[in-house]
Amino acid sequence: NSYSPNSKRLTMEDYENAKACLNHAKQCEALGDHHKAMVLFGRGECLAGHESTKRKCAHGVKTSLKHLEEQLSGKYDWADIFRADPDALLGSPKTFVHLPITAYSEPVTAIMGSCGRGLAVKRDVAIGDLLFVDKAWLVGNYEDLLEATMKQIEDCSDLQLHRLMELYDGTNGAKPLVEKLLPGRVARNVPLEHPELDEERMQRILRFNAITRWSLVDGELSSTEVKGDRNEGSSRTGHAAGLWSLASFVNHSCRPNVSFSFLGDVLTCRATRNLKAGDELFVGYVRLDRPLAFRRKELSATFDFHCTCHRCILEEALVPDGSQYLQQIEQLTQVPSKDKSFPWIEAWSSLYRQIEYDISLSIKQRGKELDEDLSLANSLDALFETCWTPEHDQQREERLKHQEELRNNIARLQGRAKPVGFEHPGRNACSAA
Questions:
Q1: What is the pTM of this model?
Q2: Contact by Cβ (8 Å): 281, 119
């Protein structure tokens, strides 16, 4: 079997009546072949004898043309989309708006990376660039997702079923993704598999892939994570959640390079850093303002893996116990009222300076390890390679020049040729930071 509307190759002679063109055009739309759908809708409009059929075909031509532009270029009418879902940013978690748009995934490609299956960019992209737009396979209240999923399976197409069963279930992480079957691609003439369906597997798929929509209710974040949201004291009960195929293939990092946002049943992904062609996409599955031990505990409990991203490696070596900051962080994550916003910002700045001081002290005490431990060295190099730009290099040179002038001034005041106490024990990159 395959994702072709019919097993035999059809020619235009098979569509000498408007009804056949209309039906086949709808199938092509469902497969993401918007160009062929547009041609068939147009042919159906020319052949239509009834006015109602002609109107349906004419509307199909406009819709297919719009979807084709979205699929190829990622051009969406964002103003109309926001008007369709005015609660997209600060709305009720139980509001679901189904938007009539198609998926876009041209900048990304499927890979087998260091974390298994994932997505990477095919070309250089800048911060803020749109990477993909994904329509939900299903949205609903989180506690009702399993029942809704099992019900929708009964009526979904073969392509929808395949995309659902491609999601990670704890056992299929080594199975490569089929590029043509990703949302935003034309799924035509691709071999089809029929995996076994059972409720236990669906529970695992929902556990690993259900994404909770962020919303702000009564001044507080009602959903604390992009994925998972199983930390102590939190609950996804009553929150809007769903399954998005493309988003589910983005792996985790505590230093993500993309961010997700929601509009109705649509998830958009944008770059949060400049990325080079071939760079893998990463998003945070848990709250990233928590210390290392808490992040790892949540990731292990929900997703069954121990995070060893560059940030975790450095934190483990330099700030092994972050629980001392947890109480302050918990207090600061509560969104303040307007009249208390300035002290809130000041408190964050004070906490940042304290953490920065503690890390600097740890680097001074354990500086030699940064050179001797290969994993630490690689993590530190990766941090600076992805963070620094030519502008940062220029600023660094200016800072080093200014520091050298200070050293010379102090040396002259002390009556010595060289100043005392400025030698940094660790890597040069650390001293620049």
A1: 0.72
A2: yes
